[in-house]
Amino acid sequence: MAYPTFAKPETLNRRSFLLGTAATAAATMTLPGAAFAQAKGQLLLWLPGGSDLFCKVQTGMLTDWTAKHKELASAETVCGLGQDTAFNQALIGAITGGNPPDMSLLWDAPVSLGTQGAFLALDDMMAKSIINIDTWPGGLLASCQFKGKTYGLPVTAGIYSMWYNAEMFEAKGIKSDRASFPKTWVEMRALSKEFTVWDGDTLKVAGFMPHREAESLAIWSALNGGKLYDSANYKYTFDSEENIEMFNFFVDWMNEEYKGDINLVDRSGSFASGYANGTTGQPAAFRESRLAGLHSGSWLMGDIYDPAPNFTRWDLAPHPVGPSGSATVSGVWPNWFVIPANSLNPQAAFDYLTYLSTEGAVTWFENVPDIPTNSLVKLAPPKILVDHRGEEFAKETTAFYSEQAKIVTPMWDSPVQGFGNDQLKLAIEKIYTKAATPKDALAEAQVASQAELDRVLAG
After folding, report:
1. Of the residues 382, 402, 422, the one at which a domain ends
2. Residue 115 and residue 89: Cα distance in Å, rounded?
3. DSSP readout, 152-194?
4. Within this chain, do residues 214 and 325 fall inside the same structural domain, yes or no?
5. From CA 359, how far away is CA 352, in angstroms rounded?
6. Residues 369, 416: one domain?
7. For residue 15, what pLDDT is reported?
8. I need a labelling partner for 268 at 20 to 30 A (CA). Which of 26, 208, 363, 442 fits?
9. 1 in a structural domain
10. In terms of residue numbers, what domain contains 51?
11. Phi, psi values for residue 295, rounded to 5°
12. Confidence at residue 299, expressed as pLDDT on a 0 to 100 scale
């Protein structure tokens, strides 16, 4: 989709937004009345959704914090407004209508809409705060920044790493300690074949799968010495030599180990993530010991117990390095918070986000194990890991993710991030279904994404 172009916050109007998307009216009409109850002295927080526990934790933290600040009359949390495009449309509709929440959680990078006037720049408030720019990992904060302005805070984040089933390794006589995990793509691909079993055209067990997710592709590009987007020069680089080489490697791997047919793989089970397939209902292959390892985020260390896997000892490792890469990197899927333009209580909202980034992030992590990202936070291991794997493993895992957070590659930093991800999804589908070569599919995505970026920059 093309992102709407916003006027400056003080001149933002509903007409300019509706020219960009006609879906907003329907989206905003279905929202509960409390969602529009913004008032001076009342803090209003919007959340796209989440589990019951997630909503209760977020609501409880805001209520308790507000009660300690007598200048605020009350707090209201609206949780479950919808995800992805529907939520963004509802939020933008409220902003253009002049009645947004004071703050909102986003599951999409704030740069795309922040640069167009939808969110307040936070730099002046950050400069006077304990959560100043120096307390955030640079690669992570880059997802909120454009041309020297910061449009959101990555309060917590899922940190990506490799996950593997230590019990499957040991059953094959393969060392299962982290230090022995493959250091390169070539080593991981060779190890993968030790596990993969076909029964005719049905994949029964797999080792590792070539990467397919657009949102975290920047990690794999960086592992091969490349990048998807050059933020310093406002240029997409999808079709670089490193990225073409990356997908040629993945396609060769698919041809050699998975019969060159991604559809056969998908019909055989849910091998793409640690979760059941929401469309087909196929259970997660990793949880059933049908997949030896995968690339996933730290959120899985809580979710993996619902439902519990049929094995006990999973472990984590750094990402292996590609043929043209030189060092391992990690990446993130953050929980971004923004203060919308036209907020009636912007300073109070920022003060709450300061709390949420520090003390509140600890409470969040204890209940829902998303990783706090600000350097001021000192973590204790999440209770869910202590309960299932013991205190020593929980402490070691927490320390591992703290180290991975230090090597996050820049990502989520394009003003048209969502559009670019959509183009990548199309390219990845064409590559794996053999509808186009990696070179041609990436070039097509490159042209479309750069044209959209240039359009937004010119506006």
Report:
1. 402
2. 16
3. -EEEEEEEEEEEEEHHHHHHTT---SGGGS-SBHHHHHHHHTT
4. yes
5. 10
6. no
7. 22
8. 442
9. no
10. 9-158+332-402
11. -100, 120
12. 86
Residue 13's pLDDT is what? Answer: 28
Tokens matching residue 299: 């959120």
pLDDT at 457: 86
Residues of the chain with pLDDT under 70: 1-38, 83-85
Does residue 3 belong to any structural domain of this protein? no
Check residue 112 and report its DSSP letter. Answer: H
pLDDT, residue 35, reads 52
Q: Is residue 209 part of a domain?
A: yes
Residue 453 pLDDT: 94
Among 402, 429, 450, give the residue marking a domain's end.
Answer: 402
Tokens for 410? 């820049």
The whole-number pLDDT of residue 439 equals 98
Torsion over CA of 179, 181, 183 and 187, rounded to 10 degrees?
A: 150
pLDDT for 36 equals 53
CATH number, domain of 125, equals 3.40.190.10
Q: Are 364 and 302 in contact (CB under 8 A)?
A: no
Residue 30 and residue 135 in one domain = yes
Cα dihedral 414→418→423→426 (10° resolution): 150
Establish whether the linkage from the previous residue to 283 is cis, with ω within 30° of 0. no
Q: For residues 288 and 308, give the distance between their C-alpha atoms in angstroms, rounded to a whole number.
A: 9
In-domain check, residue 108 = yes
Amino acid at 213: E
